[in-house]
Amino acid sequence: MQEESGSIEAQDTTETEQTVQENTVLEQDVQEQEKQEETKSEETQSPAADEEKAENPENKEESNAGEESTGNPDLEEDRSDEEEDERLEARRENLNLDSETALLETVLFLESEPQPVENLAKITQFSEDVVNECIERLKEKYSNADSGIELSQIIGGWILTPKKDSFDLVKERYGKKNEGRLSKAAIETLSIIAYSQPITRAEIESIRHVNADNMMRVLLDRKFIKEVGKKDIPGKPVLYGTTKEFLEFFHLQSIADLPQLDEKESERFDLAR
Question: What does the pLDDT look like over 2-13, one tens digit per residue?
């Protein structure tokens, strides 16, 4: 009986193990089948997605357009500047002599200092021949009696200035302002330097018979005079002369354009030296 009982138990154990093994294999088969179905499903969906992208290229174009519109602002500004330069260049190519003269007149109006022809050519991007032709047209234009300004050549450059006849009538108001209210003594000292340069301070004082320190300081501050060297005598006194600011202020091309002194004044200046 004991042997039969042992045999039965061994048989039950074997059957149980077989059942467990069968269930494990079955579960593995089910899992493998599920994986295969998922793979098939993904393969089926992928072509459909590709077809949708292919059928809607506008999506890509819209995306690219969005990227362009929200691009670097510096690049957009550069592009705008280039377009403006192209427009201005096109306008420049269509200029005729009338419009070239008008442009040169604009430059002369805006410039506060005399400009030589070569500078005007660079500013306007004209040839020097064109600039000279425009200057002649402007001189003719301002020569009319109804014009209160003229084109003057000062220290090698061209500048717009009021006509003397017209300016004299308003000099009481505008002349003193432009002169910075130079005193009579300062004007006299400046005249001595202009006609006798290079000249020392002692020589100026010998002509005026008064101390020139204050007047010299005023003229130096206004940049009407400057040191131009030293005189080759004991003590090496400083020599003074006028500046381009002096020529510009008094509308002179050079010192040679100063009015001639009368004989008495000329002798007084010569005797002091």
Answer: 444 445 455 555
Instruction: Name beta bridge partners: 160.
Output: 151
Compute, in degrees rounded to 10, the torsion defined by CA atoms 11, 15, 16, 20: 150
DSSP summary character for residue 154: E
Beta strands in 85-207 (DSSP E): 149-154, 157-162, 199-200
Q: What is the pLDDT of residues 51-79, one digit of tens each?
A: 555 555 555 555 554 545 556 666 766 67
Report residue 13 as tokens.
Answer: 């154990």
Of 152, 146, 100, nearest to 126 by C-alpha is: 100
Contacts 24+ apart (CB under 8 A), 217-224: 218/182, 218/183, 218/186, 219/186, 219/189, 219/190, 219/193, 222/180, 222/182, 224/190, 224/249
The overall pTM is greater than 0.90? no
What is the end-to-end Cα distance of the chain in Å, rounded? 163
| Whole-number Å distance between alpha carbons of 108 and 246 | 20
